[in-house]
Specification:
Layout lengths: L1 H27 L3 H20 L3 H21 L6 H20 L8 H5 L12 H5 L11 H19 L10 E2 L4 E4 L2 E2 L5 E4 L2 E5 H7 L3 E6 L2 E5 L5 E5 L4 E4 L2 E5 L5 E3 L2 E5 L3 H5 L2 E5 L4 E5 L47 E14 L5 E13 L2 E14 L2 E17 L2 E11 L7 E13 L2 E15 L6 E16 L3 E14 L11 E16 L2 E14 L7 E13 L3 E10 L15 E13 L2 E11 L10 E15 L3 E16 L2 E20 L2 E15 L5 E13 L8 E13 L7 E15 L2 E14 L5 E13 L4 E13 L11 E14 L5 E9 L18 E4 L5 E4 L5 E7 L2 E8 L7 E3 L5 E6 L4 E10 L1 E9 L19 E5 L3 E4 L5 E7 L2 E8 L7 E3 L4 E6 L4 E11 L9
Parallel strand pairs: 2-14, 41-48, 49-56
Antiparallel strand pairs: 1-4, 2-3, 4-5, 5-12, 6-7, 7-8, 9-10, 11-12, 13-14, 15-16, 15-40, 16-17, 17-18, 18-19, 19-20, 20-21, 21-22, 22-23, 23-24, 24-25, 25-26, 26-27, 27-28, 28-29, 29-30, 30-31, 31-32, 32-33, 33-34, 34-35, 35-36, 36-37, 37-38, 38-39, 39-40, 41-44, 42-43, 42-45, 45-47, 46-48, ...
Helix pairs in contact: 1-3, 2-3, 3-4
Length: 1037
């Protein structure tokens, strides 16, 4: 019923939409957006005509635009851009009234006012609209294409005419500062900044304030404000033009940067009528203006602006072109970061009264510099006879891994693959390390094995120790692996010691070598030799071996593998010899991929025991063949066909031949109709004929499954039905004497994100000659509830074999209840960030180290250089702190740009390297010194007193004065005076360099002076002077 109601509502809605579309299409084409764009185009053409004094064309276009906008507003009153339609309509009407008032209405055109022509035919898109220059940045506009068209016209003109350009060198893109218009943040504003100078892209601001930027002619464009008024702007000019007259001036001209029109923040008030303010708490440029109004307002000449002082912006920080997410450095991540799952369950069986409680703990994640994987499980069983508790042996494991290194503990496993049956479980330690191209592995552990002893003894349990060392080497042309293993074992019960051939001591040597003949062909050989003392021998050592060779070819469409293996009659590997010895045989398998939808597989093998061909022993031979094919068919179908043939026969000197010949043919088919319905079907036909005495069997088995996913609000709900039928015919009776049927119905329903129910019902029936037919019912139903994002619990009730033929049978009461819960929790240590802290101080004594009483300085900027670029400023206590720095060696630089001009960081301390460690702050001190001045003069000492006499003696201009060290220099002025300002204190040498002096003068002063400059002091009267040379007159008589 619900679906029918929704269908009726959908049909009604569709009919209404079609009617609305039909009404709108008579004037607006297929989209109100395009009708609005054409209307704006008509208005632009009207304004151009008016500017050229073509009043007739202007009025015609205004009338056409008015009719189009009125029809659009009537057909789409709820269009998201209807406010722009109102603005444009009022502009049209105001322009028409203005032209009428000026007496510019042509009599011929009056008829157009009285009729309402069909201005745009249904479905038509005017050609001028396709190539026009209209640009709209209102909400929902297709900004990309139209903005590019506008910018391209502007850019082409300014490049050609070399006008409207601005040098953007030194400006940076500001990705931190935000912009809001009338309290709403602008999405992705584009801001350029240089110190306190801020420029913003006009496009985004216009869009947010419901204004239009449109039309380009040469380097001019227009702006239609939210209140309906419009202005014209010109790139490279600060003029605001209304009509054809300049009405105002912008604080700064308008420029182009790449594909954006850029205006200064102070110009926004004149362009869009948006007042500017700075909100330092949120780093936001807040723009406030009047909300869009339907009323048309004309532009009036603004009163002279009152100079408003600029509000300071925060200091410029290093910028990046685009914020990109960065991966956290590995050495910063927590040393311990583990995902842990603790689970518990309770199981109760009504029939046996058995109770079982289990607790499990699994952990995965980072453990210092390694990856950790661990699993533990405890079981607490309660039976009628009492309580027992033990740790389940196969559920205790710890592994620690990192690149090239592995450590594993507790329940472990080791093998000599690809040799057959060469493996052993043990409880111990395993360690491996890679030294490319080598790999070394060592292991040690405790073994626990039970073997069959003589009938008088029974089973014998052996405890042992196992040690092993394995080396591997990998090369382009060959690989080799070598291992040595030694074991020591003893019987748990001394009375049973010496009753079996289990190895008391064993030394095993293993080697595996592969030759890569080509990129896709490998020849390999394996060898394992044992040297062991059986438990039933006192000192005898048995030597035997297991070897194998194989050839493998792997190509893109073809694969082939063939091998031969031999195991000696007395060979023993890790434990019970009977598990390994007395075997030889060969095997071949291959695959050919004919196409992407068809592949063929085949295999053949033959093996036997009695490898020594001892005529006194029975020999068992086995031969196997197999073929299979997989076909992927159209319409989401697949078919798999398999055939298997096996013959096993045992012959002996005193035994009749025995064994069997086994044939099996099977088909598997699947088909998916939709994402919600899948069918699986299979058929197996088996013939098992005995060799010698025995009864033959023929079995046919049919299986099909339907899986239906339900269209529920939450994914995961399904229904599943499975039916199995098996028929078995024995001997030569000719009839199927046994039939088995299994019907299985399962479901899962997801009620909510946190609640689901799952259930299964199974009916089994057996019909067999000479016995009573049997039928049973079993199944389960469970509910899972997610208690939180990290905790879930489940409750399951299971019925085991309800006898439908005999309701009094005790098994009808065989039901089980299982409760379980799992909780996920994290074990996370803190992040390993480091930091750097320190002080900036006035270093009175110049020793570079802070001393009591030395003033601490505010506003000293400290930067971390490099990729981890960070900054801080010292506070009123001279202290700075930079947190969350990755442990590493960092270079810090201090700047005293905001201190008085005569203050500077002491030489050698401006840049300092620091070693930042995890969870610690490095400490740095930046000594600041007060600079000093040196004053002096270079003059001609006429009166030979070494002192410059103002007004009487003459200074020498243009001489170079140099202060060392540092090679700071200056030149004397017209009066011979010079001054070094703000130079570091210390022992300096001030010297003079003069290209040449008049020949009749010479230096009367030293050409260099040693000066000791103290902090904040001025050394005066460092003078250099010349004196006239003495003239010797020689009188000749």
């Amino acid at each position: 019923m619900k679906h029918k109601i929704l269908l009726i509502i959908s049909i009604c809605f569709t009919i209404a939409a079609v009617n609305l579309f039909g009404a709108a299409s008579s004037f607006a084409g297929d989209d109100p957006f395009w009708s609005y764009k054409r209307s704006v185009l008509l208005m632009e053409e009207a304004q151009d005509a008016e500017a050229k004094d073509d009043i007739d064309m202007a009025l015609t276009n205004f009338l056409d635009a008015e009719k189009s906008l009125e029809a659009l507003k009537e057909a789409y009153p709820d269009w998201y851009n209807i406010v722009l339609v109102d603005i444009a309509l009022k502009k049209c009407q105001a322009s028409i009234e203005r032209l009428k008032a000026e007496g510019a209405v042509i009599v011929v055109k009056k008829k157009r006012i009285e009729k309402e022509p069909d201005l745009i035919q249904k479905g038509a898109v005017p050609e001028e609209m396709k190539i026009g220059k209209v640009v709209s940045l209102g909400p929902g506009a297709k900004e990309e294409s139209v903005k590019e068209r506008l910018v391209k016209g502007l850019r082409d003109f300014i490049i050609k005419e070399k006008v409207g350009m601005k040098d953007w060198e030194g400006y940076s893109i500001d990705n931190v500062t935000k912009v809001s218009v009338n309290g709403e943040y602008v999405s992705e504003p584009f801001i350029m900044r240089k110190d306190d100078e801020v420029w913003v892209s006009l496009f985004e601001i216009a869009e947010a304030s419901h204004s239009l930027v449109y039309g380009s002619r040469e380097n001019k464009f227009r702006v239609s404000r939210a209140d309906g008024s419009y202005i014209q702007l010109e790139l490279g000019s600060d003029a605001v033009i209304v009509g054809r007259k300049e009405k105002a001036e912008l604080p700064d001209p308008v420029y182009l940067y790449e594909d954006r029109i850029m205006v200064s923040r102070e110009s926004l008030d004149d362009i869009l009528k948006l007042a500017y303010s700075w909100e330092p708490a949120t780093s936001t440029i807040a723009l406030e203006g009047e909300a869009p109004d339907i009323r048309y307002t004309t532009y009036t000449i603004r009163k002279p602006k009152v100079e408003i002082p600029k509000m300071p912006l925060p200091p410029t920080a290093p910028r990046i072109a685009r914020l990109q997410p960065q991966r956290m450095p590995g050495n910063v991540r927590p040393s311990i970061d583990l995902d842990n799952y603790i689970s518990g369950s309770y199981r109760y069986n009504y029939l046996s009264k058995e109770k079982e409680r289990t607790i499990g703990l699994r952990s995965r994640g980072k453990f210092f510099d390694r990856d950790l994987s661990s699993s533990f499980k405890w079981r607490d069983e309660q039976e009628n006879t009492g309580n027992t508790r033990h740790l389940i042996e196969d559920e205790k494991y710890i592994g620690l891994f990192r690149k090239g290194e592995q450590m594993e503990f507790l329940d472990l496993y080791e093998s000599m693959r690809p040799l057959r049956s060469q493996s052993e479980n043990f409880e111990g330690v395993k360690y491996s390390k890679e030294y490319d191209p080598y790999r070394v592995k060592g292991f040690w552990g405790l073994t626990d094995n039970t073997v069959t002893g003589p009938s008088s003894v029974g089973a014998v349990r052996y405890f042992g120790n196992m040690f092993g060392l394995r080396n591997e080497y990998y090369h382009k042309y060959f690989d080799t692996k070598a291992m040595v293993v030694t074991t020591f074992s003893r019987a748990e019960n001394r009375e049973k010691s010496g009753t079996t051939n289990y190895p008391k001591r064993n030394l095993i040597l293993f080697n595996d070598t592969s030759l890569h003949l080509t990129d896709d062909t490998t020849l390999s050989a394996q060898y394992a030799g044992c040297n062991y003392v059986p438990d039933d021998y006192t000192s005898k050592v048995i030597h035997d071996m297991n070897w194998r060779t194989a050839l493998e070819v792997k190509k893109r469409k073809f694969q082939l593998k063939s091998d031969y293996e031999f195991v000696g009659t007395d060979y023993a590997s890790y434990s019970d010899p009977s598990s390994y010895q007395n075997y030889k045989g060969w095997g071949t398998s291959g695959q050919y991929r004919i196409s992407d939808w068809l592949s063929l597989n085949g295999s053949a093998s033959q093996y036997q025991n009695n490898v020594d061909d001892n005529s006194d022993q029975a020999t068992r031979d086995s031969t196997n063949f197999g073929l299979s094919s997989y076909i992927s068919m159209p319409a989401a179908q697949s078919l798999s066909i398999r055939w298997t043939w096996n013959e096993s026969e045992t012959n002996g000197p005193s035994e009749e031949a025995s064994g069997s010949i086994y044939n099996n043919l099977s088909f598997d088919y699947s088909k998916t109709w939709t994402d919600f319905l899948t069918f699986y079907g299979s058929y197996d036909h088996t013939i098992d004929d005995p060799i010698g005495s025995g009864t033959s069997q023929i079995k046919d088995r049919y299986t099909f499954t339907l899986l239906k996913y339900l269209r529920t609000p939450l994914r995961g709900s399904y229904l599943r039905f499975k039916q199995d039928m098996e028929r078995t015919k024995y001997g030569t009776s000719g009839n199927f004497t046994k039939k088995e049927y299994d019907s299985d119905l399962g479901f899962r329903y997801v009620f909510t994100k946190n609640l689901s129910v799952v259930g299964t019902t199974r009916i089994s029936a057996v019909q067999e000659e000479a016995t009573e037919n049997r039928a049973s019912l079993s199944g389960d139903i469970g509910i899972r509830q997610d208690l939180s994002e990290r905790t879930y619990a489940s409750l399951t009730w299971a019925l085991g074999g309800y006898n439908l033929k005999n309701l009094e049978d005790a098994t009808t009461k065989n039901w089980t209840v299982i409760c379980s819960a799992t909780h996920r929790f994290d074990v996370v240590s803190g992040y390993n960030w480091g930091g750097v802290e320190g002080i900036a101080f006035h270093d009175f004594n110049g020793d570079g180290t802070y001393s009591d009483g030395e003033p601490l300085l505010k506003d000293v900027r400290v930067d971390i250089l490099g990729q981890d670029s960070r900054l801080a400023r010292t506070d009123t206590n001279g202290y700075f702190l930079i947190e969350k720095v990755a442990p590493s060696t960092q270079l810090l630089r201090a700047d005293a740009l905001d201190l008085p001009i005569d203050m500077a960081i002491a030489k050698g301390y401006r840049e300092q390297k620091v070693e930042i460690e995890a969870r610690q702050n490095a400490y740095v001190e930046f000594p600041v010194i007060q600079l000093g001045d040196i004053e002096g003069r270079f003059f001609i000492d006429e009166d030979d007193d070494g002192v410059f006499d103002e007004g009487e003696e003459e200074g020498v201009e243009g001489a170079m004065i140099i202060a060392e060290p540092g090679y700071t220099y200056t030149h004397t002025d017209e009066n011979g005076a010079f001054k070094f300002e703000n130079i570091p204190p210390g022992d300096l040498t001030v010297r003079i360099e003069v290209k040449e002096i008049p020949s009749y003068y010479s230096f009367a002063s030293p050409e260099s002076w040693d000066v000791k400059l103290m902090q904040g002091s001025t050394v005066k009267d460092v003078s250099f002077f010349l004196r006239p040379k003495e003239i010797e007159l020689e009188v000749f008589e």
